[in-house]
Amino acid sequence: MRDLLVGIDIGTGGCKITVIDNRGHIIYEGTKEIKAYKLRPGWEEQDPDDWYDSVGASLKQALLSGSFGPEEIRGIGIDASTHNAVLLDSDWEILRKSIMWTDQRSAKQAEFLSEKFGKEIYEITFHYPKPTWTLPQLLWVKNNEPEVFEQIRHVMFTKDYIVWKLTDNWSTDLTDGQGSLLVDMRERDWSKRMCDIASISPEVLPPIKNKTEIVGKVTDRASRETGLRSGIPVITGTSDTAAEYYSVGAIDPGDSVVKLATAGVVSVFDSQPHPTPISFTYTSVIPEIWYHCMGTNSAASSLKWYKDVFIGPSDNGRDRNIYAEIDKEASQVTPGSDGLIFHPYLMGERSPYWDPNLRASFTGISAYHSRGHFSRSIMEGVAFSIKDCMSSIEELGIPTNQVKMVGGGSRSKLWQKILAEVLGKPLTKLVSEDASFGSAMLAGVGTGVFGSLRAAVEQCVRIENEIVPDEKNVENYERCFGKYKSIHDNLEGIYREDQGNFV
């Protein structure tokens, strides 16, 4: 029998399952969407049981595919986005839907924390409080739903909830812990002081364990619910970003990754932490290596929003590949979209502005512009936002050896080219670069299928192609980027004045 490994990625938009063998060859891939609840502008919640239902349905679909048998699975690794807290009572029952990392409702709580404890929080956690973190979200619950807050006895994060449902074991890893803004980064453990600020006990937080540690095995109950055989080892797992970076072999100082997924993220790896007020500083899969990143809230989600609102799912009842259609129309438009510029601030913005009041915009619209212009401007606007982040992170002076591209948006050949030319850098595209692929690799390390973290990279990571930018387009996009920045600078004051209407 084969030694197969299952990676499960619970992304903001859906659940992805990847099954690989011990050479990194993909045996099966499948996805299921996850519902989001957007109750007000700037708000986004998800139901943890929707995550588990999606995982169960995805696993059953994978097993029914006939690509492999349940007896071949040697281990399971799970990843998910950070910051999303699952609040449970003393009976381990969910108290409310999870507030997602994209949610901006806790802006006032973040502002309060910054004003009263900002420097102290930064020194302990390497970050200032912003609405994306769990700590301000907890304070929002305390201020607005005190009856819920008083019942909190257990706090998990997205991937931890799925691990718990599969194994009945409660744990997290350091990276997810960091996403809560409750970890002392020098001690690499929960901070008593940060818990005091959050008005919670450290006892409600899960034990922090190594990412590849086996924390439990699939229970008989979970076996019935998912189709997995009972007894399969499940590792702690990590964040979706850390798993994605591992999937492309970003494990050494100087490595750089651009992630084009629901959010857009630029990260540079180094052997030392370089915390700054406008960036994220996280430990990577390799314990002694750190990655430093900035992120834009709405990347591939901008294109999905555009597709859902303005194009729709079908044409006269016939199925079609809408994203391929968008690519085709956009590819026929001149780089720069003939002056049409899009700002992707659909959910406010994180780096480098940290402004929850920013909103998306199309500017420079004329009667000449076609649907293809709007399609291309979406891709270019996201690329400009990523360049905005990269320009800021480069100011830290961390050397960059190579740039790798990951995320669902990177499957678009056109978007690859646009991003390379906007950044003015060659990009490397890997054969497999999904977070679920990285989680499967981690499961292989934890279960001994791979001898070490580096051995898994050597056996599994393969280059697909390199995208080299056209210098003429690089120069054109540099001029467009100047306009992009100027438009932001002129509009941000308007959004700030009307913040009561947005958040």
Overview of this protein structure:
The protein is an alpha+beta fold and 503 residues long. The protein has 2 domains: 4-248 and 433-464, Nucleotidyltransferase, domain 5, CATH 3.30.420; 300-424 and 479-498, Nucleotidyltransferase, domain 5, CATH 3.30.420. Helices cover 38% and strands 20% of the residues. It is built from 16 helices and 22 strands. The strands form 7 sheets. Strands 16-17-15-14-20-21-22 form a 7-stranded mixed sheet, with helices on both faces. A 5-stranded mixed sheet has the order 3-2-1-5-13. A two-stranded antiparallel ribbon has the order 4-7. Helix 11 packs across helix 12. The longest helix is centred in the C-terminal third of the chain and has 27 residues, at 471-497. The chain starts with a strand and ends in a 6-residue tail after the last helix. The mean pLDDT is 93.
Question: What order do the helices and strands come in, and which of them pair?
Answer:
Layout: E1 4-10, E2 14-20, E3 26-33, E4 45-46, H1 48-64, E5 73-80, E6 85-88, E7 98-99, H2 107-125, H3 134-144, H4 146-149, E8 154-157, H5 158-167, H6 174-178, E9 183-184, E10 189-190, H7 192-198, E11 214-217, H8 220-226, E12 233-235, E13 238-239, H9 240-247, E14 255-260, E15 264-270, E16 280-283, E17 290-296, H10 300-311, H11 322-331, E18 341-343, E19 361-363, H12 371-394, E20 402-406, H13 413-423, E21 427-430, H14 435-446, H15 453-460, E22 463-467, H16 471-497
Parallel strand pairs: 1-5, 5-13, 14-20, 20-21
Antiparallel strand pairs: 1-2, 2-3, 4-7, 6-8, 9-10, 11-12, 14-15, 15-17, 16-17, 18-19, 21-22
